[in-house]
What we know:
single chain; D-Maltodextrin-Binding Protein, domain 2
Amino acid sequence: MFHPRLPRRALLLGAGAALATPHIARAQTTNLKVSLSAPYDGSTAPFFLGVQRGFYEEVGLRCQFDTSGGAVESIGRVGSGAYDFAVGDINVLMDFIASNPAKAPSAVYMLYYRSPLSAITFAKSGITKPADLAGKTLGAAVTDGAYRLFPAFCKQTGLDPNSVKWKFVDLRLREALLLRGDVDAILGFDSTSAFNLVKGGAKPADVKFVYYSDAGMPLYSNCLIAAKKIVDGNPDVAKRFLAASGRAWQAAMADPAEAILALQKQESLIDVALENERLKWVIKNQLISDESRANGMGGVDTARLANSIAIVKDGFALPVAPPANLVFNASFLPSADIRKIPV
C-alpha cells in the first residue's frame, strides 16, 4: 500500500507551442526552473502528467523539475532567485519571508489543505499524543518543514523541546532510523514516511501518526511558490504556469493511475502500484477538504491564513509577523473551472 520516494535528479522538458489561452495568440517559449520539495514520487506525479499532456507546452513553457532535500532547500532556491517556482510548505515560507523580506517569494497556489506534518512512529512505542514524545529520541532532516515547525508544535502542545533527543539524517534516510530502532519516532509528512516504512518491511497497521493539525495547528501546507522576480517582473508567466499546473493537478485527481505512468517515464525505478497508492493518499488526505470542495484548489481562506501566521510567528519567535499579502498572492490564480475539484 505504501512506497518510498526514489530520487534521481533529471531534466523534464517540453517543447514550446502556441498558447491555448484564448486571449493570447502566441508566446515565445519560456524556460522555467521548478524545485520540488522532495525526491520524485507519487506526490509529484501531477507535474509530469501536465508535461505528458502538453499543458505547459500549450502555454509556451518549458519546465525543468528538480528534486530537493526538503522545504527549506526548495524555498531557499526560489528565494535566492536561482529557481522560478518551487513546491514547499507555506509555514516554512513564512519563516523565510520574516528573515529575508527583500528576497520575499510568495505562495501563489495552495495544494495541501490539510497539513501532513506529523510525528510518525510504531504502535509498540506507546506514543499516541504529543506529551508521549518527552524523553524520546526523534529522527529528522534539518531541511524538512516538520523539523523547522517542531518549535511551534511544542509551543502549541506544551511539550518541552529540551526533553527530546535528536538524530539528524538526510531526508531520504529518516525511515531507516525508525526501522532499525535507532529512534522512537521521526518527523515528516505522513504520505512520505508511511509508504517508506512499509516499503522497508513495516505493516501498515503498525504505523501511527501524531499530527500537528490535531494539536492546535490547523495549518495549510504545500503550495506553489513564485520567486520575487516572477511576482514583480513577469506576472504573465506566473499566470500561465499556474493555469498549466492547475490543469495538471486536476487531471491527476481525476486519473491518478495515468499520473503515475507519467512519473514512471521520469523515474523508471518506481513501484507503479505503490506510488499510485501514495498519490491517492495525498489526494484524499491533503488536497480534498471542505474548503477546497467549496472554493476550488489554489486559494486560501484569509482568516485561516492569518491564524497560521500567528501560530508560526509565535512558534518560531519571529520578531514580526510576515504580511499576509506577501505570504500569499492570489492575483495569479487561474479560472474557477481549472481549480474545481473533479472527484
